[in-house]
Amino acid sequence: MNLRLLQSQVKRWAAVNFGGVHGSGYRPLLGALEELGELAHAHLKEEQGIRSNEDHHADKIDAVGDIVIYLADYCEGQGISLADAVATTWKQVQQLDWRSDPISGGKTEGAQPKTKCLPRRPDSRGNP
């Protein structure tokens, strides 16, 4: 799915369902955070091998989809293009090489990222 189209569709849907105020503030952000918790919960239960009566994989898929939809709604209310944010950040992140340079990820000395959306630092084995 095209992120620009998604954001436009979410805008229209939120206007109909929430009177246009839903995406203007923090509520979509809180929704995304709640769904992130649900994603972590499903992942943890699957990893622990418990609650086998639940479909953890389906729960993870649902949570990821909900997170993206909430973020599209949040971005719309904040005047952010979700597609541009993802494209810009990905362009920066894909230039990093944590395996060959686990200290800086291949960034030059003193270079500051334009966004704060960077992958986590590698662990002691050099895994990102």
How far apart are the first and last residues' alpha carbons, in Å?
28 Å
Write down the overall mean pLDDT.
86
Q: Rg, please? A: 18 Å
Tertiary shape: flat
**What are the low-pLDDT stretches, counting only 5+ consecutive residues below 50?**
116-125
What percent of residues are in strands? under 5%
Please work out how many helical segments DSSP would assign.
4
Instruction: Specify the structural class.
Output: mainly alpha
Largest sheet: none
Helix content: 55-70%
Domains, number? 2
H-E string: HHHH
Count of DSSP E strands? 0
What would you call the quaternary organization? single chain
State the gist of this model.
By secondary structure, the chain is an all-alpha fold.
Question: What would you say this structure looks like, in words?
Answer:
The chain is 57% helix and 0% strand. It has 128 residues and is mainly alpha-helical. The protein has 2 domains: 3-81; 95-128, no CATH class. Helix 1 crosses helix 3 (56-78) and helix 2 packs antiparallel against helix 3. The longest helix has 23 residues, at 56-78. Residues 116-125 have low confidence and may be disordered.
